[in-house]
Amino acid sequence: MYTDFLLGTGSLAQRTRRLDYANIGILADYVRIPYAAGSTFATQLLHTEFKRRGHEVTLVGPRAPEAEPGELPANYVLFAGVPVRSQPGFYLPLPTIEGLKALSRRRFQMLVGQTGSSLMEAGVWLRLTQNVPLVCVNTTMLSQVYDVMLPDVLSKNAAMQAFCRRVLVPILERASVATYNQADGLVVLSKGLERYWRNLGVTVPIHVIPRSVDPRVARGFVGRDPFDPRAVRGKRIIVLCRHVREKGLSRLIDIFAKHVAPKVPGATLTMVGDGADHDSFRGQAERLGLSDRVFFPGEFPVTEVRNWYAHADLFAYTSLSETYGQVVSEAMWSGLPVVAFDDDAGVAQQIRHMKDSLLLPPGPDADVADAQFGLEVVDLLRRPERRAGLAEAARRSASSRIEPDACIDRYYQAFDSARVHRDESPTDVGLVKQVIPIVRWATLHSAAALLTRLRPAATLNRHGRRQPGWGDAEIETTAAEETLSSGVAA
Q1: Candidates 3.30.1130.10, 3.40.50.2000, 1.10.10.10, 3.30.2350.10; correct CATH number of 2-212+403-458?
Q2: What CA–CA distance (Å, rounded) separates 40 from 31?
Q3: 218-399, which class in CATH?
Q4: In what order do the strands lie in the sheet with 338-341?
Q5: N or C: which end of the chain has fewer CB within 10 A?
Q6: Which residue, 270, 302, 272, 253, is CA-closest to 37?
Q7: Cα-flanking dihedrals φ and ψ of residue 468, to 5°?
Q8: Whole-angstrom Cα distance, residue 29 to residue 217?
Q9: pTM higher than 0.70, yes or no?
Q10: pLDDT > 90 in the chain, percent
Q11: Domain limits of the chain?
């Protein structure tokens, strides 16, 4: 199929769709990629796959002053960005006259809102002013997003947590519903999130499109053993994710300390990644006396993570903040059984409990849930035959899931639906209503920028390992697919 698009062949339907949506804009949280993030890699894959099919693709997002020319895509529209101290390299875009003019000149046939920020309002603005169909993608779990902005002292405060859950989250949900209902479709990554948004009042068409496993991960090579020499084979637990509190890593360390380490001599936990709370997690492990059993090797390029999966024995995941949880699919694709909490969203959709991995209730009693989680991890470490059976089932299950071709086909279906919705819901509004999305965008991001000042500055990707840029992604994805077709991929 890829060759058909590159050569201008393929089915008439494929060529027609390419012409119908010749110019696609993607609203993105990052135009320069400073560190590993699942939603950003998903944006890269969309960018690569649409370009591969002959579309002109423009990334729309915040300006990063430190960006070098080779780190940016070929086509982009940049807005002024306000830095977030706790996430170096992440900027909140603000509307500018120059940016809006540049956006307007692009004359997109389709807009994809692959952002969790109020940049989505730029898409609403183009929908109102130029009648451009807008498909939003839900990339943020709102029930957890507030914790990103709170300093440690407030994050641990029960009253503040209750206020955020009961007051702030409903406000954010209502605002998101209002934005989505001004679009022409919403893409979610799981059936659970489809139910969630329908129950909250989203009325536009909702499309469930799970993410494809990135070919750079799924078809990468396996090299030398990257684990610390103290990590004994057969007893290696691994987790790969950003080191931020909403990923539940503090809970995972506690589970390992209380329920795994005392029962399985030699068991180790390797936490690959980096993030604003990295030092906090490392300090927690040291206080628990686990410096020689919990390892923090840092962040690695997406092209190298397959090597970590290949040399591990078990993937443990305690995050409840995922719209999807890409690392779960990656681990299973690589033949790792997963022990995870049931989030009733993205992670839950990927696992068939007791058949290809284990999906456990996170509550209501957290202590009981943690003990059960630890018990299952211990059992898998002690019973290699059970682990091997789940590993093979996980590999088969993940490899049968959505491929890039099927993923893009579903996006085309969402585009077709969006165009119909646009035609049935024409916009004819005055100047005042056209300005409202811009005012809302500026107001929300200005307020968010002030709130982020509550958290101290952080160091990310402290080892300086560069993630592939936009052009690199295309080259490496092509190489991975060519390797697979030649039969020499790991």
Answers
A1: 3.40.50.2000
A2: 9
A3: alpha beta
A4: 294-298, 268-272, 236-240, 314-317, 338-341, 358-360
A5: C
A6: 302
A7: -60, 140
A8: 22
A9: yes
A10: 71
A11: 2-212+403-458, 218-399
